[in-house]
Amino acid sequence: RAQMYLSTLLGGLLLQGGKFFSFLNRNRLKASREVESVDLPNCHLIKGIEAGAEDIDILPNGLAFFSVGLKCPGLHSFAPDKPGGILMMDLNEENPRALELRISRGFNLASFNPHGISTFIDSDDTVYLFVVNHPEFKNTVEIFKFEEEENSLLHLKTIKHELLPSVNDVIAVGPEHFYATNDHYFSDPFLKYLETYLNLRWTNVVYYSPNEVKVVAEGFDSANGINISPDKKYIYVADILAHEIHVLEKHPNMNLTQLKVLKLDTLVDNLSIDPSSGDVLVGCHPNGQKLFVYDPKNPPSSEVLRIQDILSEKPTVTTVYANNGSVLQGSSVASVYDKKLLIGTLYHRALYCEL
Questions:
Q1: Taking the CB of residue 204, how many other CB atoms lie within 10 A of it?
Q2: Which residues are annotated as a binding site?
Q3: Which residues are documented as binding site for Ca(2+)?
Q4: The whole model's pTM is what?
Q5: Which of the following is catalytic: 44, 76, 115, 177?
Q6: Is residue 115 among the annotated active site residues?
Q7: 3-state class of 352 per DSSP?
Q8: Grouped pLDDT means (10 residues each) for the chain, 355 residues
């Protein structure tokens, strides 16, 4: 019924308000924004990443995981026929290289389409890797056990749920427990487009555990990156099309209540935490129009922001890196470890910088 109602509504709105909605969406996409370059001196592109590293998560010991090769309907890809994968880089090495992790037999590698990722270290030091996966553009969360000696991932579980219709990112809070963002309310591509076009703000954050699955925050334009504060008391959520980061307080029953909203002038994608300071690093898209309508002559730009004291009245926001697309196109994540910065992109290259 909701789908029929929306289709009828869209027909009327397109006839009457097309120009108005076009203006609104240009603003949400920051369609006219250009960036001034902010360069870092010691950077190089990472060999072996040519078609995106949408998300990056770094363990406390300096092992970095990359989610590579994401494909989405309507989104540009430099390797449309190649399955995605998980790469690893040891940031303790002098010249670290990205190596693809082997995945255990029985897991469908041909349709592997990884998106957001998160690691969890259990009390017995077992490392779990949670991966949002879109096999044939469906929505699952895969849980793997990382086996460091073999440089491999052992697949443990595939999670599907009606409350996870359009998963973007996860933050693991237990061996089978996580918060996830849905970037759309619907899973159908046409209804997704419609929902974004009408700015319905129906997207949400879901808490998943084997015993309980529930919506814990809602009303986002398009909930995207998610992470947790170092003291585990707060959850941070990026709302990409509203240009906002939401700070939510986590309660013992895993429910969330909104504490504050930080407004920014860019499309905010994935969020990472600097373990040494608690600062939030944000991979951003200064101009969403260029990101979604790809033109090699006018490619999407990249921007990385650092947010200090996010819980304070006036957090400090600084630009760590910005590029007009000549080096790096469509930055989606920035992650830091011991003065080393990794910047990933939605569908382009990845950058390694020594700060």
A1: 21
A2: 54-55, 117, 168-169, 224, 269-270
A3: 54-55, 117, 168-169, 224, 269-270
A4: 0.94
A5: 115
A6: yes
A7: strand
A8: 56 49 74 92 96 98 98 93 97 96 96 98 98 97 97 98 98 98 93 89 97 98 97 98 98 98 98 97 96 95 98 97 97 97 98 96
